[in-house]
Amino acid sequence: MMKCALKDSTIILSGTYEHPARLTVTERFWTVNPSQDNSKNLLDHPDYGGRVQFFQNKDRMFLLKLSNVTHEDEGMYCIRIETNEEKQKYLGYPGVDLKVTDLRVEIPEEIIEGQSPVLFCKTTCNLSDKTNFTWYKNGKHLSKLISTNQLLLQSVSRDDTGNYSCAVTDQKHVSPAVTLSVRYPPKNVSVSVSPCCKIKEGDSVTLICSSDSNPPALNFSWFKENQSSAVGSGQSFSISSFNSSHSGRYYCEAQNKYGSERSASVSVTPAGGKKTERSGQVLYAAAGIGATFICICIIIVVIKIMSRKTGDAGVPRGVSKQESNNTAVPVQTSSHPSNTTDSNELMYASVTHKSPKKHQRAEDEDEVEYATVQHLRNNRNASAETGCQYGNMRDHRPAVSAGSNDEKADDSSVIYSSIKVA
C-alpha cells in the first residue's frame, strides 16, 4: 500500500493485526524499513523524536501519527508485535509505503496576450482525491471558487503578469512561486525630444522612442511626415546641427516578434530660438520706452524751473515778489483840464505801488512807481491822439544818499515804467 504525503504536513498511518488466543502481546510499535532481526521502535528513533505518536481506536486499529513530514521520512512503515513467547513475534510486512511530495506550479512555456492558459499545481505522487487546493498571485489569495489543482486564466492580458503559487487547503506548505509573463506587442509608443523646449538653429537635437512591450522592442524606425522612406533607425535619432530643413513632424515605429506600433507625431522646429529673440526685442523696447519717459520728466522739470526764473526776472528791480503782487488801482488822469467828453482822456491801468526801501528815510515813503501803465484812447479820435504815445519809457534816477537836499526835492517825483499807449 502506498501513501502520498505533502511535505511539512501531518499524516496518520493505520494497521490491524490478530494473534492466537494462547499468546499474550507484550509490545507493539511502528517501525520503518524493518528486517526480521532488526526492527527499531520509532519512539526510540533519534530522527523521529517528538514527531510520532501511537494509539488505537475503537475499531482496534493501531495508528501512527507523524507530523512535519520531510523527504527523509520516506520508506516502508510496518507494525511489530511481540508476545510472551520469544519465538512468537509478528511483523506486518509489507506495510505502508510512504512517499513525500512537494508542490510546484507548471505554466505553459509561452503565453501570448489574448490566450487562455491553464496553470497546474503538480505533485510527485498522487494525493487524496478529496484534496482541495488554494491559488495565490503575488502572495494574495485568489478566488475561493478555485479549489482544484488547475487554474484557468481567461483571455490574458499584461495585467495577468505576476508570481503564482498554490497550496493544499488547510496546510501550511505553499509551493514556490512561478512567474507568469504575458507576451504582447509594443504599446504606448511615444517620442521625447531633447532639448525639449528651446531649439535653436545649430543645436544638436535627439529624439528618443519609448514603448511598453514584452519582450522589449528591439527594432525602431524613424519617419518624417510627407516622406515615404525612413529617415533613421534605432531607439534614438539624432540631428547634429539643426536647421530649417530639418523642421517637420517626426514619429517612430517600435517592433518586437509579436507586433509593432507607431507613435504620435511630434513637431520639431526652431521656434524656441525665435521666441527667445522676440522676447529680447520686447525687453529692449520696454527699456527704450522707460528711458524716453524719464527724459520727458526731466525736460518738464527744467521748463518749470526756467519758467519760475523768468517770472522772477519780470519783477521790477528793487521790488520784491511780495511787493509786486500789490493790488492794482485803476487811476484816471488827464493831460488837460477835466472834460468827460474830451477825446484825449487818458487812463492808466495796472498801476503798482512800490513800498519804500528799507534804507530810505521816513520822508521818502510817498514815492510812487508806476509800472506797466497803459494809455487807453478813444478809438473815435485816434488820429488826434497819435502824438500821445509813450513807448517803453523809463526814468532812471541816480541813487540818492540819505540826508541829501536833492532827495527831499524828489520825494514827490513819479516814475513811469513800461508805459504803453493803446
TrEMBL record:
<dbReference type="InterPro" id="IPR013783">
    <property type="entry name" value="Ig-like_fold"/>
</dbReference>
<feature type="domain" description="Ig-like">
    <location>
        <begin position="94"/>
        <end position="181"/>
    </location>
</feature>
<feature type="domain" description="Ig-like">
    <location>
        <begin position="186"/>
        <end position="267"/>
    </location>
</feature>
<dbReference type="InterPro" id="IPR036179">
    <property type="entry name" value="Ig-like_dom_sf"/>
</dbReference>
<keyword id="KW-0472">Membrane</keyword>
<feature type="compositionally biased region" description="Polar residues">
    <location>
        <begin position="375"/>
        <end position="386"/>
    </location>
</feature>
<keyword id="KW-1133">Transmembrane helix</keyword>
<protein>
    <recommendedName>
        <fullName>Ig-like domain-containing protein</fullName>
    </recommendedName>
</protein>
<keyword id="KW-0812">Transmembrane</keyword>
<dbReference type="Pfam" id="PF13895">
    <property type="entry name" value="Ig_2"/>
</dbReference>
<feature type="compositionally biased region" description="Polar residues">
    <location>
        <begin position="321"/>
        <end position="344"/>
    </location>
</feature>
<dbReference type="InterPro" id="IPR007110">
    <property type="entry name" value="Ig-like_dom"/>
</dbReference>
<feature type="region of interest" description="Disordered">
    <location>
        <begin position="375"/>
        <end position="422"/>
    </location>
</feature>
<dbReference type="InterPro" id="IPR003599">
    <property type="entry name" value="Ig_sub"/>
</dbReference>
<feature type="transmembrane region" description="Helical">
    <location>
        <begin position="282"/>
        <end position="303"/>
    </location>
</feature>
<dbReference type="InterPro" id="IPR003598">
    <property type="entry name" value="Ig_sub2"/>
</dbReference>
<feature type="region of interest" description="Disordered">
    <location>
        <begin position="312"/>
        <end position="344"/>
    </location>
</feature>
